[in-house]
Amino acid sequence: MTDMSSPPVSPRSRRDFVRRAGGLALGGLAGRAGLGLGLAGLAALSSRASRSANPGGGYRALVCLFMLGGNDAHNWFVPIDPAEHAAYAAARGDLALPLAALQSPAGLVQDGRRFGTPAELAPLMRWYEQGRAAVVANVGPLVRPLTRAEFLAERDVPAKLFSHNDQVSTWQSLSPEGARAGWGGRIADLLMAANAQPLFTAVSAAGNAVFLSGRDVVQYQIGANGAARVRALDERWVTGSSTVGALLRETLVTAGDHPMAGEYARVMARSIAAEGVLSSAFGRVSVPPIPATPILGGAPLPTGSPATLDVDPLARQLSVVAQMIAAAPALGLQRQVFMVSLGAFDTHANQLRDHPVLTARVALSIDYFMGALQSLGLLDAVTLFTASDFGRTLVSNGDGSDHGWGAHHVVLGGGVRGGQIHGRFPVVATGTPDDVGSGRLLPGLSVVELAAQFGGWMGLSPAEQAEVLPGLSAFGQRMAPLMTA
């Protein structure tokens, strides 16, 4: 089996970059203006970044919504023509959604074949009907275009299929677990020089993610309430003392004699400085509040699921991303790549109970995010796409579905050629040329091809896309344009 490996990253160059980046942030602590200049100096550390310092086209942001566990998209987009639905129902068994339970969004058609969606997906699909969202059919990791016979002969098959950790990494980096750079981070490497504050080029609201790791870019992590800060530096925490906060700050950023202490001080200084800049920028923008919408119409929810959207972790992640996008002009940002996530999609059991709730949470959160961007006049500047470990088996295991391969995803935003299905939607049955076993889909489109569409929209040249996405040349020009210019 062939591994889709990312370009090697020099450990020494990474350490040198962290050392110098920390020094810049430390120098910026002298004042807000100094901080801005210090962070801007990060761009000079990358010779590649300077090539895309003026990508043009105004501000643009790419947002990855990762569904951890493997979303069962077989129950997101369902054939509704009688003969095809009968084949789907025969294969799905107890997991099949009945025709009466499916809605038929306008335009969800390909080559005369009609598709429906569950009611829980309706808030998302209204953007499809408005031409602001598209469906990408049967996409997944590939080394090159592959046939079922080649898969069975194990010719150029992606490494470690059906493994959660490895396929999460492969979707995000094009390599199995252990990859050190993701394709989102590599895009950010080339575009960070366009930003006055390069530290805010690659931003995760979902914790550390290989998707946003690059050679040069520093992955910045934010929480649902905004920039992370040292709690002990909060004025309320040191009430009663006018000196404790200042003394603690001085202690945290003092390098000391040990190399590890010096590195800690540099990272801490950068964190404190960045939090100050970001919190100030957030204080000058306002985004619509998350509505207290019931997530599933009052139906019983699985243990631990939020009942209303305003307390949903995914909605809160998207809210803080919208806040950062709104603050981009004040921060001097032209290009950003974001990551948000939602877990619990590993539906081996209780699928008919849990999956509708997860679907509703995704659809309502995206609908809120898109509406917030639209109210801010920023919808055309942002593209959001869904991703997941892998698809699921079409065949039921009795109470759920097992690990698959290809899956259907959605892409939303003003730059999307929406209201249509991109890629060939497979015949939904077992024993087809697209079935590698139990209804696991052999992908018709690769993650690399999808990523190239986003890279081009963000401003990368064809040569830069090839640099960011090793193996892209194996696919030629198979995928029709997904994005507008």
Automatic annotation (TrEMBL):
The keyword Cytoplasm does not apply. The keyword Transmembrane applies. InterPro entries: DUF1501, TAT_signal. Keywords: Membrane, Transmembrane, Transmembrane helix. The chain crosses the membrane at residues 21-45. It comes from the Bacteria. PANTHER family: BLL7424 PROTEIN, DUF1501 DOMAIN-CONTAINING PROTEIN. This is DUF1501 domain-containing protein. It comes from Piscinibacter sakaiensis.
